[in-house]
Request: fold
Amino acid sequence: AGLNVVLTGNTKGRGDESGKFVGTNVLNEAFLERIPETVVQDYPSESVEEKILIKVLNHLGSPDDQFAKNLVRWAATTRKTFAEGATDDLITTRRLVQAANAYAIYGDRLKAIEKVVTRFDDATRDGFLDLYKKLDADVGEKVDDSAVAAAPTVATAPADPKKCPF
Reply:
């Protein structure tokens, strides 16, 4: 009683022909028939995503609500262009959290964005970087170095997973 089994996947068991999830295989139809319900989880709303990033930035000792807002607008724009077929990539919530972490390390919005877009091909990287620059009037502005020095590192972050916001 009370046992739940949750399966996750990016292709609903149908495999991937786009190359985005190259390690994803087609699942057996008999297996898929044993899964009584499929839930499609979209990205969080912009307000929820902003709250996530504000919590992450505060947790890291680098509060910057405007950066959180800018990140969310940036991601929303990339997702819209992806949905319209104008780009093959987008910015995920996970990548936004990585940007918040990079910001806590470097104390520089632009450097944080540069770090999280390096995985993309050159054209996509440059396009995403340019888009962020258009959305953030303060890009490249440095924060107080003492705030960055006080940010927790992996070694000093709380060990209690209940305290971790992500």
In short: The first helix runs from residue 29 to 33. The chain has a mean pLDDT of 83.
